[in-house]
Amino acid sequence: MKMKKIIANSMQEATIQIKQQLGQDAVILNSKTVVKRKLFGLKKQQMVEVIAVLDQDFEERANQGLKHVPRVPVLPQKKEYVDKPVKEQPDAAQAINLAPSSIKPTEYARNERHVGMLPDSLMAIDQKLKDQGLDDALRDQCLKGLLIKGAVQEEQIEKELEKLLTEMLPAQGSNESVIRSKYIVLFGSTGAGKTTTIAKLAAKTAIQHDKKIAFITTDTYRIAAIEQLKTYAELLKAPLEVCYSREDFVKAQQTFEEYDHIFIDTAGRNFKEEAYIRELTDIIPFDESIQSFLVMSATSKYQDMKAMVNRFEHVPIDQFIFTKVDETDTMGTIFQIVAESQIGLAFLTNGQNVPEDILESSPLDLTRMVLK
Ligand SMILES: Nc1nc2c(ncn2[C@@H]2O[C@H](COP(=O)(O)OP(=O)(O)OP(=O)(O)O)[C@@H](O)[C@H]2O)c(=O)[nH]1
Ligand SMILES: [Mg+2]
């Protein structure tokens, strides 16, 4: 994407300059009147400031045979048009609304992140999102969206940004309960909070939704791990089966046939090792009756989270659970992972108290946490 800011005496003059510098296919994203001082500041003059882009994304989409690539035409503008930002162009906005994965980071790196070309309000937003941990591609997607909507005032930005960010996240299903399958399995790295979260989920399901629940654990590496889950099971008056193998697991399934939901705890392992993933799939049959959650700590680094998700490419992950959000102020890393993987976020946990410290989290909730 090539971007230019042109300041000219009139919109006509600006249009000519845009055509000269960016060509016929340039797209005006924003225009406004600005006051410039001339003659050592003695004389004020009204001028037009126009931001225009030549977006290769448009070209690519056109070349890929995607039907109808709308553009905002560069036309001589009427006087009253100059004073207002470019009006909302739903078609053009749609054309620009590319999936994050289709944006090539290098394309944006060349722009030096549009320094000096964007209104201060947008530069401030860009910095805020950067501080939260959103990468160049996602932030550019936001800036493009805001410019196309002509959102440069604080209130407009807030409203539009909330919408833009939320649309980048995978849509959530209807309002049915998040816990819907018979078997619920949580896996993830050591100490992420799997056992504590399983206890929270099981307690809520049993108490609030009045369901008959049971537990299975495949974490047979530490006596303490079994004891930990046993304590929660006893408190909830729910049975627990320990499974060392697929045979044990099948037997436990028969034992718990009459139960509504069976919560399966797994061992926290270093999932960098392929063998541990195999261990998981050896014991648990990942079929349709199983709803699976990858549990990661919100305090983990982006690169580690990303590596973790990639590690599980052969294990179906239905949704994420991020724990320990009470221990961090930056939710952008979580946003980045969810937007990039297009795997939905089911729950956030925000403390050690069982069962209260857990929140169901919609895409809008996550957006608001990033923007707060
Ligand atoms: N601050 C905070 N601590 C949490 C949260 N969830 C879990 N913890 C704590 O994190 C520690 C590890 O929790 P566990 O539930 O044992 O973690 P795990 O993933 O089962 O650990 P392993 O089975 O050893 O892999 C405990 O001290 C929990 O109390 C949370 O949301 N916030
Ligand atoms: Mg555990």
Which SSEs are present, and which pair or pack?
Layout: E1 2-8, H1 11-22, E2 27-38, E3 43-54, H2 56-63, H3 79-83, H4 90-96, H5 105-109, H6 120-132, H7 136-148, H8 154-168, E4 183-188, H9 194-207, E5 213-217, H10 223-235, E6 240-242, H11 246-255, E7 261-265, H12 274-283, E8 290-297, H13 302-311, E9 319-323, H14 332-341, E10 344-349, E11 358-360, H15 363-371
Parallel strand pairs: 4-7, 4-8, 5-6, 5-7, 8-9, 9-10
Antiparallel strand pairs: 1-3, 2-3, 10-11
Helix pairs in contact: 6-7, 7-8, 8-15, 13-14
The structure holds guanosine-5'-triphosphate (GTP) and magnesium ion.
Q: Tell me the total number of β-strands.
A: 11
- Rg from Cα: 26 Å
Shape verdict: elongated
Cα-to-Cα separation, first versus last residue: 30 Å
Biggest sheet descriptor = 8 strands, mixed
Report the portion of residues in β strands: 15-25%
Percent helix range: 40-55%
Question: What are the salient characteristics of this protein?
Answer:
372 residues; alpha/beta; eight-stranded mixed sheet; 41% helix; elongated; binds guanosine-5'-triphosphate; binds magnesium ion
Describe the model:
The protein starts with a strand and ends with a helix. The protein has 15 helices and 11 strands. Helix content is 41%, strand content 19%. The strands form 2 sheets. Strands 6-5-7-4-8-9-10-11 form an 8-stranded mixed β-sheet, with helices on both faces. A 3-stranded antiparallel β-sheet has the order 1-3-2. With 372 residues, it is of the alpha/beta class. Helix 6 (120-132) runs antiparallel to helix 7 and helix 13 runs parallel beside helix 14 (332-341). Residues 58-111 have low confidence and may be disordered. Bound molecules: guanosine-5'-triphosphate and magnesium ion.
